[in-house]
Amino acid sequence: MSSGTTNKSGLLGSRLQAAREMAFVGREEELAVFNAALYGGGCSVLYVHGPGGIGKSALLRRFAQEAAVAGRPVSMVDGLMLKPSAASEAELVIRDADMVLLVDDFERIQGLEGWLRERFLPRVPMGALVVIAGRNPPDMRWQADPAWAGALEVLPLRGLRAGDAQALMDSTGVPAELREPLLAFADGHPAALLLGATVAVKDGGAADRWTPNQDVVATLLDQLVGELPSAAHRHALEICAHAYMTTEDLLRAALPGDAGALFRWLRRLPFVESSSLGLFPHEVVRELLEADLRWRDPEGYAVMHDRIHAHLAERVRTASDVDVLGAVAALLYLHRGNGAPAGFHGRHDEGGFQEEVVREEDVGTLLRVATAAEGAASAACAAFWAERQLEAFRLYRRTDTGEPVAFSAWLRLAELDEEELTADPVVAMAWAHARATTPLRAGEHLAVSRLWTLPQYRGNSPVMDLIQWRVIGNCLRGERMAWSYIETRHPNPAYLRHYGMRDISEQPRLGDDAYTLLVHDWRAVPAQAWLERIVAGPGPSAATARLAVLSQAEFAEAVRKALRQLSRLDALAASPLTRTRLIAERAGQNPATALGDLLRQAIDDLREDPRSVKFHRALSVTFLRSTPTQELAAQRLGLPFTTYRRHLTAGVERVCADLWHRELYGTDAPAYRST
Q1: Per-residue pLDDT reduced to its tens digit, 154-201
Q2: Mind listing the pLDDT tens digit for each residue in 310-356?
Q3: Is the dihedral of CA 555, 444, 426, 432 positive or negative?
Q4: Nearest-angstrom CA–CA distance, 603 and 617
Q5: Could you read off the pLDDT of 14-35 as tens digits, one per residue?
Q6: What is the CATH number that goes with domain 12-156?
Q7: Among 79, 82, 69, which Cα is nearest to 34's?
Q8: How far apart are the first and last CA of the chain?
Q9: Helices (H) and strands (E) in the chain, counts
Q10: What is the distance of C-alpha 319 from the center of its chain?
């Protein structure tokens, strides 16, 4: 027989089966569980569940092969083709103790689950094996019933391991230069990997720019997600894909409607997982939904993004101390696509390191770590500040071993004594820089970030992510913080410069070691503007205008001058007040117009206090009615000139005090009232 004749013999089904066998990779753990049950050493019922395209059908075909090798009869039932009333195929297992029954696409006949558990399976003879595979996990009543404890084994099917995904890609013949972006896109999802490989091989193109085209996106969404109940359900799923973690309150902030019902629906989806922080989808589903919405509705995508950003930014400001790290991580993750430093090195719910508040009993550990990390001189600084500001310190441990690997401190300083200046050259240099540049105003403080990390945990590591998130949280939550200083031994701390922090010219020294000290003026670039800069990513668009930082005397003089020029918009435009926080927080307005409105409102507010009504009248006649002279103003008020002057001076001082209070505390702060 010729080779050509040989190639044409046999059945197409045999060829398809051989190709599937060659493409099957991994799943050693699942096969071990099945084989244990197959040879009488395991469960009687195996329930496999996972999202569409994750490989359930391929695994059942391999189970069938294993059963055939063992000489066991096999019955395959497909829920896609089986009507609920037609279960005759499955009845075979009741009459044969050697039978292996494999049920695929069980989600199509999920309504039979109760009948299967309560009526059908109890009639199966011992020795028989039933495998159920579907997208949805089993009803909790299986595991709540102690009778099923030894008889049922539940196997959640997840993406392929990295080595297995690579082996599957090898079977597709994808060129080496296309493998890395494909593996990153698929994240171990077999269907995404195979479909992406097919398209990538056909399309070619630059490997470093490869992304799934819209045909791949649409095909995989149909397979993985399918039809959705309504537009609201689709929006909820898109929010879940865009956010790091989805909670019910986030859903409520981003999507009007019944957030509770939509959240309950999300958590039941087979491709959505739960963690202690909320819900998150499988990564390939996340990327597909993101790509689809950005392409299909860019304006809707932007609106969704802005709503989630506003919610998460507010959460950073209001979260409890223990929740700050998660809140910052969620905010940065939202901007992962534009160069913002998200810093995620593990799974969503698997932290390799944990942060703790430092207690008195941890001080000895602090000194040992500080000495090993930075030397004796730096450890002495740690001991000094731990005695004075223990609440400023955080300890970072390995989760698996409890090993302490780093300490950080966020020192808040409003004034320093001679002992403090002498004890720590880093803090002394920060204090000297602030005093020489724009000193602290009444009620303000500066912060100095100190860090002691064991050498093997420095650089781009998960524990540095936690420390970075804590620093960002401190910056965004700081009340009346004028300056922040971050010390580092890194020769080129580019990630800190990305945050808009600049080096000071001098380098403090501890022993033989020189440190870089990076500084930020929070009065010149407040927290909101700074946040907009770091999430915008690098580039010209990230530039932020610096605000004027005035002393109280300079501020009051500027207010007095602006009151005299209240009717002249051009004069108000030249006022230094237009470059202060006071005006910057009134976004969207012309600065000169905003300043005029603010001054008029400050005068008007004096009417609310009965003790200051006379001041309001003097200011109103003088500045709001443009009375030419003060003598004429006194006449209009029917007051002696000296009394009028006393009321006017007191009124101006009250306006200055009120606006200064708002400059320091924010425009949403209640107006200042003297006692």
Answers
A1: 999 988 888 888 888 877 777 777 777 788 888 888 888 877 777 766
A2: 999 999 999 999 999 999 999 999 988 765 555 554 444 446 899 99
A3: positive
A4: 9
A5: 666 666 666 678 888 999 999 9
A6: 3.40.50.300
A7: 69
A8: 110
A9: 31, 16
A10: 14
Secondary structure letter of residue 623 according to DSSP: I
Measured distance CA(510)–CA(291) in Å, rounded: 50
Interatomic CA distance for residues 272 and 417, integer angstroms: 55
Residue 348 and residue 247 in contact, taking contact as beta carbons nearer than 8 Å: no
CATH code, 224-338: 1.10.10
Query: What is the per-residue burial (b if ≥16 Cβ within 10 Å, else e) of 440-462?
Result: bbeebbbbbbbbbbbeebbeebb
Contact 406, 453 (CB under 8 A): yes
> Can you read off the two tokens belonging to residue 219?
């095909």
Give 412-466 pLDDT, tens digit per residue.
Answer: 999 999 999 899 999 999 999 999 888 898 889 999 999 999 988 887 788 988 9
Full DSSP string of 197-240: HHHHHHH---GGG----HHHHHHHHHHHT---S-HHHHHHHHHH
Nearest to 348, CA basis, from 329, 367, 368: 329
Q: For residue 632, what are its two tokens?
A: 């004429």
**What pLDDT score does 349 carry?**
46
Looking at the domain that runs over 353-542, which CATH code has it been given? 3.40.630.30
Amino acid in the structure at residue 167: A
Which tokens hold the place of 166? 């690579």
